[in-house]
Automatic annotation (TrEMBL):
InterPro entries: F-box-like_dom_sf, F-box_dom. It comes from Panicum miliaceum (Proso millet). SUPFAM superfamilies: F-box domain. This is F-box domain-containing protein. It comes from the Eukaryota. Pfam families: F-box-like. Gene3D superfamilies: 1.20.1280.50.
Length: 113
């Protein structure tokens, strides 16, 4: 028998239920690479695990950047998206950077949350 050969016997590997998606750490690594506007607008439409992470993982929303999305202003309220991003941070927002993300009312909202 060759060195390292187990004689055709394979070690049992526990089955993984991929219906639940990747692990939380892997999923957050993916979501952290996406733009926050993309996460707000589309990540929760991918699958159940992405929806849960995009809505409930406050660590994803600690540093929020919402820049360079002038095209969505015609379709959506960037101020509304900014408020939703801050809400998802669950009080853990450390930094917010956004162009035309809101008015004085948004700044008050940001300071309170």
């Amino acid at each position: 028998m060759a060195s390292g050969d187990l004689g055709g016997v394979r070690e049992a590997v526990p089955a993984r239920d991929w219906a639940d998606g990747p692990g939380t750490d892997a999923l957050l690594a993916i979501l952290h690479r996406l733009d926050h506007v993309d996460v707000l607008m589309a990540a929760d439409q991918v699958c159940r695990s992405w929806r849960r992470a995009a809505r409930e993982e406050s660590s994803l929303w600690r540093r929020i950047t919402m820049r360079g999305h002038e095209g969505i202003a015609r379709r959506l309220s960037r101020g509304g998206l900014a408020c939703e991003a801050v809400r998802r941070s669950a009080g853990r927002c450390e930094a917010f950077c956004g162009e035309y993300a809101g008015d004085d009312g948004f700044l008050v909202y940001l300071s309170e949350h």
